[in-house]
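for the record, two folds in this file. i put them one after another cuz i was lazy. first one right below, seq on top, structure tokens after. the second one comes after a little note so u can tell where it starts
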Amino acid sequence: MNAPQSVGQLDRTTYLGGSDVAAILGVSPWTTPFMLFQKKTGAYVEELTPAKRRILERGARWECIAEFYSARQDAHVEIWGHEINQGGLTR
């Protein structure tokens, strides 16, 4: 990644990412061009449904597994702006 700071810390309304380009081109199965416009301008507020909340909670539970794997495999893993090296979670 060549971003000046961690993607998890960036304000997504100020730049276009790869998934944004897919939405602009109309090929994203998750976001329409108009929905992206609303998100970038602050007019869209996504509803947090019980199903989506479960997905997010599941992802949070997997973070410790990724940290464990990283320590065992001497791998580099990044979780929401936190680097994980062999020594464990940093930042």
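(here's the note) second protein begins now
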Amino acid sequence: MEKLGIHSLDRGCIVIDIGSAYTKIGFIGENYPRKIVKTSLSIFHHFKQFHPSDRYSLYNCVEDKKKLKADLEIFLTQLIFNELMVKIQGKNVYLCENYYINRVFIETVAHILFTKFEV
């Protein structure tokens, strides 16, 4: 039986919870997040105000989707490589979804994780 150490934790699944103030990242099986960092506010400046009764505004509330994607790529790269310091290719990643965050935001994060980080 292998001892629990850094090498065995690297094989675990990664959990990412992007909040409006703080982002938490860690591994499944740990009691606490490995890192808690301030969420870059620039990724939330891409949303414009919308009225909840307008059912189509949920999909059109992002002003510049390309800029949002670029800012999220920078944020996730710093988060994964600088804070967590692990290769993420081929690992399972669990993204905690907040129901108050726009669906376009979650789909953009998932798209970046699939295409750039190959998870």
